[in-house]
Amino acid sequence: MLEQMGLKFDVITSNTKEQMPYGLVTEEIPMELAYNKAMDVASGVSQPAIIIGADTVVVKDEILGKPKNEEEACQMLLRLQGQTHEVITGLALVDTWTGKIKKGYEKTLVEMAPLSLQEIEHYVQTGEPMDKAGAYGIQGSAGIFISRITGCYFNVMGLPIHRLWCMLKEFGIDILDNI
Question: CA-CA distance, 115 to 119, in Å (whole number)?
Fold first, then answer.
């Protein structure tokens, strides 16, 4: 998605543990996780750069993280099927040169079609849901389960590119020059 935006980038994985911070409202949690990731990466970068941190959560009455095992993945999907839930991605940008920091988030409503237990178990057995918040990836085979979204599709994939574009503009970066 960053290539689609015309950005030149290096991928640097954060060593930050993804632990849910307490005492924050739901929308602040993925922003804080994204901020922690961005700051961890920024601490190891010695040249001027804009660090982009992102973290996505799925919310249905509570935050659903990545499933720990196949049973938990089935339970999450049983909870989401036939219902509407929220996908919230937090973004954090850190300018290693100036120290400027910007945080934001995007929220999308996602409606999942009713699914049978057999359909859920079959999907879980593919292994695809095991590293995904809410136990599904809209960009993968679970895309067939999504009957409607209200908001940003890219947000559900984990990077709301419109919100990122707006935040980069606030940093004075015009990515249209790169496209």
Answer: 6
